[in-house]
Specification:
Layout (H helix, E strand, L loop, with lengths): L1 H12 L9 H7 L4 H21 L1 H4 L4 H21 L3 H18 L2 H9 L5 H29 L3 H19 L25 H32 L4 H25 L3 H17 L5 H32 L2 H33 L2 H25 L2
Helix pairs in contact: 1-7, 1-8, 1-9, 2-3, 2-10, 3-6, 3-14, 5-6, 5-7, 5-9, 8-11, 10-11, 10-13, 10-14, 10-15, 11-13, 12-13, 12-15
Amino acid sequence: MRAGRWIESYRIVSRAYFHLPLVAVFLLMNGYQPLQIAFMLALYGVVAALADLGLGWLKGRLTLAGSLVVGESIKVVGLLLMVVDVQWGFVAASQILSGVGFSLTAGVDGALASSLRGRETAAAQESRTQMGMFLISFAAAVLGAFALLVWDRLPFLLSALAALVSMGLVLAARLPLRDSRERTAVPRSRGRGPGVDAKTRFWAMYYSLNRALLLSSYTFLIPLLLFGAYRISIVLFGVLMGIYTLLGLVAARLSPRLAGKPVLFVFSSVGLVLGIALLLGDGAVFAACALAALGISGGFVRPATMISLTPALERVDADQRVRILRGLERNQGLLQAVLLLASGVSLTMFSSIEITISGYLAICVILQIAAGVVFMKNR
């Protein structure tokens, strides 16, 4: 149980991303154009989505704890490259390494924590951990903005230190890092398999595209809007970006009480459309309301999708279930990269962030109408 407490602490501290909402602002301050910024952010998304396809040989030699340690160490190197230099080669290498590090840790911490918990305390522990993760994300966003005022590289340095502390927490658990078991090749099943029908693929795409719209807005469009167009202070910027995380926490806390109810889907869809629409308003107040709506949508989108996916997931075997769930995140990363690059091209061609946001809004409306039709048809 002591090891479990160390890993739960890791899950909280590892979410101290002081730099995450500030990457676009940092690059803008250092002379990067919107299309260049979009490319760098998209590069991270593509690597994070696809890196695990080429890391099977490494993961096969590591335990879950070992994967966390190696992943965090790679993140540290990537973040420190941003501290060293802002030339495009350093930034690109930083994004690639950060994406690889994320790929090694994504989902691994949750799997390891669940294997170390006692059944009677699992729900309470997960609830406390999720709250801690949201709160530290909010605090890091605000403190990262203050740090940017002191030195523009400081948020990256603080995130690197947080990754080092996270790695130390895993090591303190004294779990084996290397997997010494002998492994034999297991044939991988191909094809979609029984039960993975068009409806399942639709809801998987719904989740991936919704998350891609949310995160590309959070990491790219909204920072450019607040800092580039509205010229707000860095501190206010950090507070506004933190609103997204706090409202995501509220939604996530409410989700278990609304599980199985159609209102969960309504909150997720309406929150996304309303949030993007409010970005077309003028001023920081509209932006704050937009971030609140998007945070609520972000907190509800996964449970809303799982309601629709659960019947299909129950019909397939364990391997197919894992493949579907991994595919959600992989497709999200790829779609997010496409949206980022399209946004960068749009901003370059039209020099208008309003046109780009309008494009996002059109995609959101079409997606939510289609999802609403499918949802009502299959109730």
